[in-house]
């Protein structure tokens, strides 16, 4: 139902935009010069809305519309790296706040002197995972270290991971047509009644090949109910294992948070620049990026990944 509501909302936005463009075209066809400034302003606003909706079309992965979990790990660089990890945590929290996403820091391990060794946050909102998955990888910081008595330049690394927040509830729907149910005489203790009647039940879930049997209850209906409960539990466990494997695949192979693996560099000395090594986008306004101005980098990476034929993750 949430998926349906989201699709309806998106469709309404496109249909409303289509009607706006049609109305603008009709007004423009009148040739009234007195409407020029008003029409120009409306056309520019419609163009911005088109760009915004087109951008969302790039977020077409199976989990892109949903919530996300982000983990930050301090890498090579000692105390500086732990301080850098905390700076990244602040950056993502501010970025999420700008976008209207809800965040919750669910885990944080502080460093001995400063910063954090690791942190994990949940990010909730429409397209949260589609956005944050673009940040996966190693982030490098170059600056004059505030923890070095000689105030020398240091390079620090931190690893950012992101995966979809699928949720805890895993529902299992069993189609009766997928079940083969056999009954037989119970062999366990239980008295003459159980031995003479086919009270035992064996249920085979044909799509998965899972077989569950129960013969401990006194009636066939009780054994069947128990067997179905066990079958649901086993299928739920299989689904949990499948999801864990899927999330592991989405997270990708572990990357060492050190030299040669960075996706983005943040340089504070001897010059100021943030450069994304995947898309090539760079800016000299480092402080704005550290304050959460990340949308340009997200958009540039999505353009790059689609142009490079990498499909959605």
Question: How would you describe what is shown here?
Answer:
- This protein is an alpha+beta fold.
- The protein folds into 3 domains: 2-57; 68-168 and 255-307, Alpha-Beta Plaits; 176-247, 2-Layer Sandwich (Double Stranded RNA Binding Domain).
- It contains 8 helices and 11 strands.
- The chain has helices at 2-29, 36-57, 78-99, 128-132, 192-196, 220-251, 286-290, 295-307; strands at residues 68-74, 102-110, 116-124, 137-144, 153-164, 179-184, 200-205, 210-214, 262-267, 273-276, 282-283.
- Strands 2-3-1-5-4-9-10-11 form an 8-stranded mixed beta sheet, sandwiched between helices. The chain has a 3-stranded antiparallel beta sheet with strand order 6-7-8, covered by helices on one side.
- Helix 1 (2-29) packs antiparallel against helix 2.
- It is flat, with a radius of gyration of 28 Å.
Main β-sheet, spatial strand arrangement = 2-3-1-5-4-9-10-11
Number of separate strands: 11
Please state roughly what percent of the residues sit in beta strands, choosing from under 5%, 5-15%, 15-25%, 25-35%, 35-45% or over 45%.
15-25%
**Number of helical segments with 4 or more residues:** 8
Q: Give me the CATH fold name of the largest domain.
A: Alpha-Beta Plaits
Which stretches of 5+ consecutive residues score pLDDT under 50? 188-194, 309-313
- Main beta sheet: 8 strands, mixed
Number of domains: 3
Task: Write a short abstract of this structure.
This protein has eight helices and eleven strands. The chain has three domains: about 1-55; about 70-170 and about 255-305, Alpha-Beta Plaits (2-Layer Sandwich), CATH 3.30.70.1660; about 175-245, Double Stranded RNA Binding Domain, CATH 3.30.160.20. An eight-stranded mixed sheet has the order 2-3-1-5-4-9-10-11, with helices on both faces. Strands 6-7-8 form a three-stranded antiparallel sheet, covered by helices on one side.
């Amino acid at each position: 139902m949430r998926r349906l509501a989201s699709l309806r909302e998106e469709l309404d936005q496109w249909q409303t935009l289509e009607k706006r463009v049609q109305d603008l075209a009709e007004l423009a066809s009148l040739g009234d010069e007195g409407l020029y400034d008003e029409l120009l302003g409306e056309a520019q606003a419609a163009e911005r809305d088109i760009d915004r909706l087109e951008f969302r079309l790039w977020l077409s992965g199976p989990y892109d519309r949903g919530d996300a979990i982000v983990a930050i790990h301090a890498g090579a660089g000692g105390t500086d790296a732990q301080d850098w990890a905390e700076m990244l945590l602040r950056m993502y929290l501010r970025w999420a706040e700008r976008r209207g996403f809800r965040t919750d820091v669910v885990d944080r391990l502080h460093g001995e002197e400063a910063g954090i060794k690791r942190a994990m946050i949940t990010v909730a909102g429409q397209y949260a995972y589609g956005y944050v998955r673009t940040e996966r990888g190693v982030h490098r910081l170059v600056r004059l270290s505030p923890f070095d008595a000689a105030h020398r330049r240091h390079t620090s690394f931190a690893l950012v991971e992101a995966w979809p927040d699928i949720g805890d509830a895993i529902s299992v729907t069993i189609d009766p047509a997928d079940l083969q149910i056999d009954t037989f005489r119970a062999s366990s203790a239980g008295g003459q009644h159980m031995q003479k009647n086919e009270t035992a039940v064996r249920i085979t879930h044909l799509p998965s090949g899972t077989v569950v049997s129960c013969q401990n209850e006194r009636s066939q209906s009780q054994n069947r109910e128990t067997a179905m409960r066990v079958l649901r539990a086993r299928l739920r466990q299989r689904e949990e294992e499948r999801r864990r494997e899927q999330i592991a695949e989405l997270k990708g192979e572990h990357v060492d948070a050190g030299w040669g693996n960075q996706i983005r560099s943040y340089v504070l000395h001897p010059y100021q620049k943030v450069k994304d090594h995947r898309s090539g986008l760079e800016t000299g306004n480092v402080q704005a990026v550290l304050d959460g101005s990340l949308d340009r980098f997200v958009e540039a990476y999505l353009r790059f990944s689609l142009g490079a034929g990498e499909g959605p993750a």
